[in-house]
Amino acid sequence: MLSYCSKDCPDLCSFDITVKGGKADIKPSQHYFLDVPFVCTKLKHFFDREFSDVKSFVKNAAEEQKPCSHKDAVWETAQFLKRNRDKKILFIKGSGSLGYNMYYWDKLFSNFPNCWFVEGGPCDETGIYAHVKDFGCIKNPAVTNLSQAETIILFGKNARNCSPHLYAYLKKMKKNGKKIVYIDPVKTATAELADKFIRINPGTDGLLTAALLEEIVPGQGRKIDGILEKTGLLSEDFNYLKECVKDGKTAFIQGFGLQRYSNGANIVSWINRLAVYTNNEHLLYYGKSSQENLNKPDIPKKNMVNIADITQKMDERFFDIYVVVGTNPVITYPEPRLQIKAFEEKPLICIDTNYTDTSKYADYFIKSAGMFAQDDFSESYFFNIKGERNAVNTESPSDMQIACGIGEILQTDVSLDKKKNSDAAATRKYTNRALELKEPYVEKDKFRLLTASHYFYLNSQLADKYRDTDNYVFISDKDADELNVSDGALLRVYNETGEFLSRCKISNMVENKTILVYKNRKLIKGWPNMVSKSIPTDSKTGLAYYDTFVNVERSNG
Question: Count of CB atoms within 10 A of residue 54's CB?
């Protein structure tokens, strides 16, 4: 059966799958932009993980987990919701399998009079805000437009880990003579592909592009005093970039990391402006959401809470019940100590493909079979392709089936009008608006903590197979010398929000009082987000994860 993967990246990687005896034989199918199709190393593990032997459960009066069938768990959950339908419910919905069917959950909980939905998200909302503000929509040109460029500039786009099919296409472009420049505070594996890697100080990409634009198109950018010191670039790197940005021949690819600063939308907008005023808009790309251009269902939502205000509301005991579907906020959202306290004090309902660090606090847990178990459709983040997926196994309930099952018991309409067409008519039209220039937030004498995606595991799910992969605090040799620590030393990373412990790895990946931890990892003690605060980005729709500042010291355990 022909299907596609909507996990993690998503590049909408297409494949042929045959399932026999619970085992999956997965073979790559054709991608229109690649000569040799492939599936990434994670895909087979996704199948095994989603059909793993995880039991649904309902806690009994003694607060013990009582395993039960999916059907019983759905029934018990529905009865609980029926008894408490007027109470304040916080509904946190993750990306799940990134398909349209996650809207079934919105439809279900829109029928509860006191349900609160989350405004904004942790992934791509800030960049989407900037693109809609600048162009009226979020649209990427065809990836094949890259063949028209002489230079391809990646701004914080770690394609090797986050978009392996784009990475393969970039390798093809390089073989065809394209020059690739990679700008990032972290020297990731993508630097191996680049003709030139340029390290930039975190959150200063907007300053760089504004200064470049002023040099190339005077009057449209900004002349910035001390630009080299602020960005960390050498004068030859700045001049090199100025020569790279050519009229109609330079591609700009924006990574998700750009928007994870408090000035994230401003950064994206200045790169957009540089592309427009150098006649390179047809070569400007951003990783749009997998549902951004789908015709979304019209679902009324009476109550909204901003994503940056969730943990404060939790701490105030504002909500009576928590419902978490397809996400693991204890690992991915800021201030997990406040979350855990809230989940321990109030009833928690979890629906997920596996048992997570959030699910352990659940009073009702329903195991979902996820992507492989349901028909669905979505778009690629990066490529202009839509995919329609057929279920390859229906023995375990899908997200959609669970939502509809609860709705049926509650006699609530959870049906959706599945309009599979996307808004193809929308085109980018630049609005020449007044654009201020925002500098990054900095706390002197502290380390900035950056987190990054790893190629070998899911972002929000700590898969056992890769649980011990690269669980380090990466630090520069200069900063390690100043702390008097060596490889393998146990480090305590802390601030007023929390702390975690992990081993030290001295690396050239980072410099200048910046440390890196691969995100959402189970460390020796805690997780990276233990020290993250709920700081909003300038769009007020995302979280400034990269504005996390910490103290670092040797620990004795």
Answer: 19
